[in-house]
Structure formats: structure tokens, C-alpha cells
Amino acid sequence: MSEPILSVRGLRKNYGGVPALQGVDFDVARGEVCGLIGPNGSGKSTLFDCCTGLQKSDAGSVLLKGIDITGWPMNRIAREGRLLRSFQKTVVFPTMNSEQNLVLAGQMASFPGVASTFSIGPKSRARIKALRERAQELIEVSGLSRVAHLPAGNMSGGQQKLLQFATMLMPEPELVLLDEPLAGINPILIEKVIQCIESANRNHGITFLVIEHNTDVLMNLSHRVIVLHQGQKLADDTPEAIVRNPQVVEAYLGG
Amino acid sequence: MALTPITTITTLDTPHAPSARLPAVRWGTAGTALLALALAPLVLDGYYLHALIIAMIFLPPAHGLNLILGYTGMLSLAQGVFFGIGAYASALLSTHFGTPFVLNLVAASLIAALIALPLGIPALRLRTTSFVMCTLGFVVIAQMVAKNWVDLTRGDMGLSGVARPKIGFGDTTLAITQIPQYFYLILVVAVLATLAFIALIRSPAGRCMVAIRDNETLAESLGIPTWTYKLIVFMLSAAFAGLGGSLYAHYETVVSPLVFQMYYSNTILIIVLGGGVGRVPGAIIGSFLFVAVTEALRVTPELRMILYGFVLLLLVFVFPQGVAPLIERATEKLSRLGVKQEKSL
Fold first, then answer.
1. How far, rounded to the nearest angstrom, does the alpha carbon of residue A119 sit from its chain's CA centroid?
2. Per-residue pLDDT tens for B79-135?
3. Among B10, B205, B217, beta carbon nearest to A117
4. Residue A1 belongs to a domain
5. Is A240 within a domain?
6. Residue A82 belongs to some domain of the structure
7. What residues of chain A lie within 8 A of the CB of B10, using their CB?
8. Contacts of B195 in chain A (CB under 8 A)
9. How many beta-carbon pairs under 8 angstroms link A with B?
10. Chain A CB contacts of B204 below 8 Å
11. Using a CB-CB distance cutoff of 8 angstroms, which residues of chain B are in contact with residue A114?
12. CB distance B207–A118 less than 8 Å?
């Protein structure tokens, strides 16, 4: 196996004395879709928070493409590490329309620094024009054309979910962490989101780490599944082996 | 851990995509208003021109507050502090070194922004209400410094004899001494400040500000260094306030610790909230509206402050988003006039 895109080593995190992560180790290989399952409160979202810099871990390290990013601020991990994440509760910028949401998501990747974003000169406008074209493509692919002019806060929950997913692809990331991408959406939309993940993985080589409670879908989607239980890694195997693992069945999947 | 924004800005729910003619209609409306303003000295006497000048002096600080509150979502009560710093900076430069008006204007903005830097670094670590309290603290500190650093500020006596502006055109120099001359000078500065404000919010950075206002954690997760942007916006809002302070010093020719009264921060806040927070015309409409209301209330000096309070209450209840949305709806309708007729045929 080539160098993993993400390596987590001995990660620990306590919330006021309550352990959320108790020394978690795992690797995610470049180009794979990796599932992350476990009961509520098993530390999945905390793991995402610590990998992306939203929360500071108490111990352990996170390596992204071999570089130790432990303690980096969230924006630097996103910008330099090209690691993006979605949140459990769908979040978009509510007062901006779809195009503005998408352009903003791509902005930091296409401008060389903070100072250059204050310019309204021709160079800056050309960059924004390119981003808008890309945004329009993504709006079309996501099927959001009809509502694209609305402020995102006025779109339906499913539409916001699609927009959020398009947002993740905008800056051409290398690794995307999805926190329950299928929660609260209808079966047709589930199919659409899965297609989007598969196409982004296959055609653009984007690596995914996906938290999802819809295990049937996740087992089909993932190349490998990691199971967390009470802040520890319980299993790390192929989907076929995971569903037969007695420990996993007892802790999470049920009989 | 998403930040609850201090202001909730709702967008106008338009059923259609905006008309392509909307920008033209907007600029047209702005141009007409500017033309009317430019013609004001021909019909109005000195007293009313003075009132309009006060409105335009408050305009740049109000733009600054709109930038930080309306577009970035942080309530700063320190605009009055930077207004006062701009006024003192100009007065000190003018009385000590006799530097020209234009230089003082630029220097006042720069000094205000530079002082905002060390204040912003600790203050911006705080969120929502703690940040507001911190900026309130700056007002109290500024008052104390202005009163007690007598060597620099001459304390309560203040600085008088600030030179009236002189504008050089090649070989000739125009001394600004009369009200109509002041009116045009300050109008030019106010228009330039407004254009700078529009350029800022239309730049890619302006989009980042709105992102921070809408959801700071999401913005951060998309690679936007939110803290850096907030610091820059804090400094820019101070620069706008310093510009207003400099205009004030050169117009009144006297600066005293009274410029650090809470009154100035309050006035700037009322202008922005009354006009329309987070909207381009907000501060513009607000500053003229504010002056119109205070002038209109002069007819009853005894009841003035009580009525003023009632007007504020009325404004909050009838126009919770300020007056600007009315104008925006009107221009929106105007831009559709022709389109509707075509459809009905």
C-alpha cells in the first residue's frame, strides 16, 4: 500500500472527564471510500472534529499525506491539506444563493492569499468568473438549477444537502469527511448522493471517509469499514467481514 | 459549536431571479439622489446645509460599522472611539505641524486602523456579547485617556484652532471657509468613502465577511482564515471612522474629550440599524434620516428627547430591518416595469 492519505495515531479526547476517544489508530488509503460506523456517542463525530482541527485532541497525532497536522487551525487544514468535511446538521450559508455558496467554497483554493481577495481588479474578476462557471456546472449536475437563485436558507432540506455536497467538491479536495450525508433525505435523493460520491471517487480520485447509520447503503458504498465503540476501534475490515464480525454485530449492527 | 450571529439578516424573498436591469436601476437611483444632493446648496440656506454636512460626516463611520456589523456580524460599540482618534489625530497634526487637510485625512484613517490592531487582537478572541462588552470598555478607556493625557490632548480644554482645509489645484489654492464649500468638500469625501465601501463588499473578501456572519465554523471549514478577516475588518471599520473624525475636526476646528462620549457610538449604531444593516444603502439612508429626524424635532425643544425615543421605537417596530429594504423593493419593482408589460401582452 502506498503512503496513507490520513493516519490517526493514538488519538485521545475527553469532554470534561468523559472520554470520547481513547486512543484510536487507523489509516485511510488514497483513493478509497472508507466507512465509519458505531453506536451514538462512540466518538465518530469527535474523531472528525479532531482530524479537521475543529477540536483540539488531548493526545495523539493526525498525519495528512505524511505531514503532522495536529494542532493546525481548521482553515489551514482545509486550505493546505485539501481536507474538507460536512457537518451532521446540514449547513450552507443561508443568505447566499447556490452560486455564491459554491464560489465562496472554491475561493480560498484559487486565490493566493488573504490580501489578494480584497482586489476587484481584472485578475481577481477572472478568477471569480472561472469559479462561477464551475459553480454553474455543479449546480446543473446537482439538479439545483430551478432553485439556484434562492437564498440557500430558503431551499428545502434535501436541496441544501445537495448544495452542501456540491460545496465539498468545489475546491477540488483530496480527502472529504462526510458526517451522515444520507440522514433525513428521501430514497431517490439517497441514490443521487451515492452516485455523486461514487463518481467523485472514481473520476476525480477523491478519498472519502463517511459516517453513516444507513449501514446497508454504507456497506455497498465502502471499500473498507472502521467500527468505533466507546471511543475505541472495535474492527477495521472489508464490509463483508464486518457484517459477520460477532463483536460488531453485538455492539452495533444487532442480530 | 456554531456561533449564534448577533444580527439576524433575512434576505428579501424574491419569487424570480433578479432582473438584468436591476443594477442599472440601482445606480440610476443613486445617481439621481447624488445629483439632488449636489444641487442642495443652490436652494438650501446655511443652516440646512450644516445639517446635511453633519449627516455626511457620520456617513463614513456608519459604513465602517455596517462593514463589521452588517457584513461580518460583530457588534462593535467602539466606532465612536476611532471617530475620536481620527479627530484628535487630525487636530494634533494640524495644530503641531500645520500639515495639509488631505494628508491629515489619510493619516487619521491610518492611525485609527493602526490603533485598532492591538485592540482587535485580544478583543476578537471574544465572541458575541463578550466582544460587545470589550468594545464598550474601549470607549471608557478612550474618554479617560483624552481627559488625563494632558500633555498631548490638553485634557478638558481640548484642541482648538484646527486649520480650515485648503485644497490646491496646481498653482491656485482654494481655502475652504464657507458652508457651501465645506458641503462640496465633504460630499466628495463621503462619495469616495461610499465607493470604497461598495468595492470592499463586492470584492471576494466581502463574500468571506458574509460567510463569517452566516456561519463562522462553516467558513473556517472551507479554508477561510476567519480570524484574520475579522481583524482586517475591525481595522477597516476603524479607518472609516477615523476618516469621519478627521472631517469633523476640520469642520468644527475644535476637538475635546466630548468626541469620545457614548453619544457618537450610539448615533452611528442608530444610523446603521435605522437605515438597514447589511445593505449598501443602509448607512446612507440612515445618516440622512437620522439628521432629518433630529432637525425636525428641534421645533419642540422640551419634548425633543422623548419624541426621539418614540421615533426610535416606531422605527424598530415598523421597520425592524431598517428603511433600506423599502428602497430596495422599489428599485426591484422599477426594474421589472417593462418586463411585466411584455409578459402581459
1. 31
2. 999 999 999 999 999 998 988 899 999 999 999 999 999 999 999 988 888 999 999
3. B205
4. no
5. yes
6. yes
7. 95
8. none
9. 107
10. 107, 111, 117-119, 124, 127-128
11. 205, 225, 228-229, 232
12. no
Query: B134, B121, B125: which is closest to B81 by C-alpha?
Result: B134
CB atoms within 10 A of CB B66: 29
Residue type, B333: K
Rounded to the nearest angstrom, the minimum Cα separation between A241 and chain B is 34
Total domains, chain A: 1
Q: Is residue A50 part of a domain?
A: yes
Query: Nearest CA to B46 among B136, B181, B179, B170?
Result: B179
User: A153 touching B, CB under 8 A?
Assistant: yes
B202 touches chain A (CB under 8 A): yes
Chain A residue at shortest CA distance from B71: A95
Do residues A234 and A60 lie in contact, with contact meaning Cβ atoms separated by under 8 Å? no
What CATH number does the domain containing A68 carry? 3.40.50.300
Question: pTM of the predicted model, to two decimals?
Answer: 0.89
A183 CB within 8 Å of a chain B CB = no
Which residue of chain B has the CA closest to A129? B204
Structural domain boundaries, residue A119 = 6-253
CB contact set of B238 (below 8 Å; sequence gap of 6+): B64, B78, B82, B85, B112, B113, B115, B116
State whether the Cα torsion B67-A150-A122-B226 is positive or negative.
positive
Question: What pLDDT score does B338 carry?
Answer: 65
Pairing of the two strands A207-211 and A175-179: parallel
Contact B211 A104 (CB under 8 A): yes
Shortest distance, CA A94 to any CA of chain B (angstroms): 7
Report the C-alpha gap between B255 and A229 in whole angstroms.
Answer: 67
- Average of per-residue pLDDT values in chain A: 90
Q: Residue ranges of the domains in chain B?
A: 23-337
Q: What is the pLDDT of residues B191-207, one digit of tens each?
A: 999 999 999 999 999 99
The per-residue pLDDT for A92 is: 92
- Of the pLDDT bands very low, low, confident and very high (cuts 50, 70, 90), residue B343 is very low
Whether the pLDDT of residue A124 is over 90: the answer is: yes
Q: Tell me, what's the pLDDT at B243? A: 97
